[in-house]
Design goal:
Number of strands: 15
Shape: elongated
Helix content: 25-40%
Oligomer: single chain
Structural class: alpha/beta
Order of helices and strands: EHEHEHEHHEHEHEHEHHEEEEHEHEHEHH
Distance between the termini: 13 Å
Bound molecules: 3-phosphoglyceric acid, magnesium ion
Radius of gyration: 23 Å
Largest sheet: 6 strands, parallel
Strand order of the largest sheet: 3-4-2-1-5-6
Amino acid sequence: MAKKTLADLPDLRGKRVLVRVDFNVPLDALGNVTNDRRIRAALPTIQELLGRGAAVIVMSHLGRPKGNPQKDAPYKMDRVAERLRQLLVRPVHKVDEVVGPPVTAAARNLKPGEVLVLENLRVHPGEQAGDAAFAAQLAGLADAYVNDAFGTCHRCDASMEAVPAAMSNKPRVVGRLVAKELQILDELLSSPRRPFLAILGGAKVSDKIGFIKSLLTRVDRVLIGGAMTYTLMKAQGQNVGNSRVEADKLDDARELLRLGEGKILLPVDHLVVRQLESPDEARVIEGNIPDGWMGVDIGPKTIARYREEIGRAQTVVWNGPLGKYEDKPYSRGTRVIAEALAAAPAVTVVGGGETAEAVESFGLAEKMTHVSTGGGAFLEYVEGTPFPALAQVEDRKTS
Ligand code: 3PG
Ligand code: MG
């Protein structure tokens, strides 16, 4: 069902709009923002609202604070607000609370064209508890609600579900980022151009079983890489040496192989090492991996084969790095496949936090059709999990 968007909001001059964003960005040890992609992705929504004469109240979670004031210090939103201020070049105020009198006062004093950033929603226990009284306080701050937090749409935290529920007499719409993510993923799932290829990597099969099953019913081919390769190989009875394996997931792996029969391609060769710390000893092995060695990347024959498949595809969805890409000597498979996607004529959709980071680190994000801001949300949407948060946003009436 299509959701109402910013275009459905009434005259916003002099109104306050509460925008839930996903500014859950990576931070370094000092609390500096190391990747601002999710902040930049929400700018079109915030800019449009400000341009239409609204005052904007921005709320997000950041990390997973534990309710310990000392340990939670890095999770304050000050650096995030600072980055937003730099990017918007507009007045951006920040409050040190999530709700309460200082927040209400700051919201009341906010002028059209100005932004107020609330403190990390998750420092308040009401957020993850989905508490209605907490939600009512947030709901009272504004005249309209915008969900532009695609990366959090699979969560039922108060700001995602209870807040819009408490604003049922006010406009509740999705922002530009959520609208774009939903449009691209809906097209991918409902009417992909074929051949439709999935590239699946990452360390684990276990947290992606539903996602992989869903894709197996939709795509024409699946290319496998990353450490999940070794769990699948082991399930086939192949030798994987010391490679990382999810020994308790072999039954699931067998089921996936059965469901994907004729569609799944496993690597035919592997870059292997004795120890991660000794990349100089790395060699390429075809077939079984001997004892004492572990796989760390897909091999050159596999890369060549996968590139052919990518060249033929009309649609490609990619989730999960193909090797231990964060170590340079083991990053070739992931990088060359990213380059092949960047150069491919196909519609290319990349999702999942690590995969998006990899593509960005190679400088190729702009060359993809779409790089999702969703990690878990991307996987769950493709899997077909309904999102209660989106149910709280108004539907667009179809005539
Ligand atoms: C994410 O990064 O996946 C979202 O921001 C959700 O965060 P969470 O997994 O801590 O709920
Ligand atoms: Mg997460």
